[in-house]
Sequence to fold (342 residues):
Amino acid sequence: MQTILVTGGCGFIGSNFIRWELETYPDLSIINVDKLTYAGNLENLADLTGNPRYTFAKGDICDRPFIDGLLASRQVDAIVNFAAESHVDRSILDSGPFIQTNIIGTQTLLDAARQAKLGRYLQVSTDEVYGSLGPTGLFTEETPIAPNSPYSASKASADLLVRAYCHTFGFPGIITRCSNNYGPYQFPEKLIPLFISNALADQALPVYGTGENIRDWIHVLDHCRGIDAALSHGQPGEVYNFGGHSELKNIDLTQKLLVALGKSPTLIRYVADRAGHDFRYAIDTSKATKELGWAPRVNFETGLKQTIEWYLGHRDWIDRIKSGAYRDYYQQQYGHRVTESK
Ligand code: NAD
Ligand code: TDX
Fold:
């Protein structure tokens, strides 16, 4: 039986990845290390409680003795590092936690993985490390790194550490860089879940600047399949880009959401632009297709419809996050029964 140590598995993408992996591979075990920051929600994986192939360990990826202890206690075949501070706007308000978790946390995991002689390490990164595109062109794996926000600078720093460990130590690291994910369990600070939850409450939708900025949307399960393919078939030292081939202006996406929810366009509020707001992201996925046999499968219109339906069916999930009640779940569900770092 293979065992993967997943970090940040109580967040949006990590929770989708863990569920998908356990469903796809009946012989796989997963250890989920998560600090449970504001973005980590145990409810996202409540359905796995009692699953003998799933272990939750509350802890910080910056805590080296804790990570060493986990790697010593189980035969771990690979680490997949999702754990991060992930919201650009928060990094503009305070970059400190981004430097700590995204850079120091990655360095800690790399050193722990090296010491334990792990066979595989996958760093989940972002297309934002490439900076911003104009109206045309695509990011490839050869595009120079040019991050523009404290968030993307911290992610680029982590990528450079992985690269350096591969080069210097022959470390078996792989980097994946993906465009904007959407789907179930995304924290309602990011555009799609924020606008859905605001619209449902008849609150204004704050569109930054002119709303002309473009993002390439990919369904979270397409991203998960890409990470899985890179973990199985990727070459150490390589970078693989994933994207959804679904570019959309923010204002067009906002209008689509309002139509789907049956809400009035008068909810739209143009507000001050995000500082340093990247204009456009778009991805050339040909390397992942050629070398990993990967391509996005979920049609954006279908995926968005299913995502809206998920949020409509999980209003209690949104409400518990907005009220902060989701944090009580940990105490109720786990008490002192799980491994915890100090
Ligand atoms: P998220 O904010 O929803 O989840 C992050 C998780 O990491 C949370 O569960 C949090 O508790 C945990 N965490 C934070 N700091 C930690 C620490 N020090 N130790 C242990 N756990 C910690 O983020 P997400 O949207 O699921 O993104 C996951 C990863 O994917 C991130 O590395 C992000 O940079 C990357 N990524 C995200 C997107 C996107 O569109 N959301 C796109 C490309 C790449
Ligand atoms: O209230 C808002 N109004 C608005 O106009 C918010 C939250 C966002 N926006 C705009 C900014 C962006 O152009 O919508 C776009 C998407 O914003 P976010 O959802 O914050 O995502 P983005 O900044 O593009 O970054 C995301 O994709 C890459 C993730 O948050 C990152 O973790 C990932 O690396």
